[in-house]
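Morning run. Coffee first, then this:
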Amino acid sequence: MSSVTTKPHEIVERALELSNADGCVVIAQEESSANLRWAANSLTTNGVTRGRTLTVIATVDGAEGAASGVVSRSAVTADELEPLVRAAEAAAREAGPAEDAQPLVTGVPHSAAFTDGPAETNSDVFASFAPALGEAFATARAGGRELYGFAFHSVTSTYLGTSAGLRLRHDQPTGTLEVNAKSPDRKRSAWAGAATRDFTDVDPLAMDADLARRLVWAERRIDLPAGRYETLLPPSAVADLMIYQFWSAAARDAAEGRTVFSKPGGGTRVGEKLSPLPLTLRSDPAEPGLEAAPFVIAHSSGDDTSVFDNGLPVEPVHWIHEGSLARLTTTRHSAGLTGLPVAPAADNLVLDGGGERSLEEMVADTERGLLLTCLWYIREVDPATLLLTGLTRDGVYLVENGEVTGEVNNFRFNESPVDLLGRAAEAGRTERTLPREWSDYFTRAAAPALRIPDFNMSSVSQGV
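And here it is:
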């Protein structure tokens, strides 16, 4: 077996053959990526990478329950495979019984393409995008703007095999585009971003036109104090807040009284009304344009993940349904502890608000308020209320009588996304968006703009 030509599915099969554990899960991931970077209206770098990661999860039965050991390594060759399997088995034998131990998943149909080679990306993914980007450079240069940015595309092929018989495979393309426009003196800056599967649905010229408009807005500077303002949160900012809320929605944490979803006196807030608007927060691995893995891929165990659940189907779920909390994330183990249905987290998130108006239409209907571009440096202050703090960035604009009249200073904010859902006065049209803060971790999102009557800008920030 060649260490150079071994296919991922062959590595999975060989690792399972080598295993002496009572149970074994093997996850092989092949990733390829391509990127472009530019500054001051000129391309600066581009590159293509390839990589392989192998994770072996060994389970060992004992009198007090099953234990698990997990070992992951990059660029594993055939000669390194057996030592990796033995290391996972040793880790399992040295570990105590796993609290989340469950029988390995069975009964999931094999993936038809399990024995096929991995999907790959390369610089060809930018074949139509790169010329359009060049046109955007020329337009920006003629308009006295400088464009800076980064385009990234990756494809990860995941092969999952288990001693219980599963043979699953998923190919995940991920693309992100971020563009900053700056005035020649670098005192004015505006940001735009997009998520894509293949770069055929992004338009750098349209992005430049929007950024040019924002730089014009910023020609008039207005200083405002900290305070509560009617605020229009664009889809990117809403998605960032909803993702953090989603990451904080583990059923076990809530049942143990540790999160905003804990019910006073015990239990969870499932069934409780969170918003007067008919907001629905949902995940679906088959969501068009946001397709994600239809089965659990877990490299470690935690409150909302379990290595024993690898291969478990991920179903469409409404986390919030028409304003009411409907589900919390569970493993099979935590579902048993809490009495809630099994609901593994998916790798996409959609907030539907029932609105039809665009952000521009919402601006036109604003008497006086703030229009944000994006949020940045979001951090948790209080898990009991999910109070978050963070900064605005790359453009906060004052809206007066339906028109943007200038750019104001940046702010630090203090808000809970759960509270915001309860206070939102309007939701616009849901659209695919790039969450700026979490774009390295979570890109498959769609959200509407939200109108918040009293968003808390807790202090003035000197950031750009």
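The chain has two domains: 8-214, 220-464. Good start to the day.
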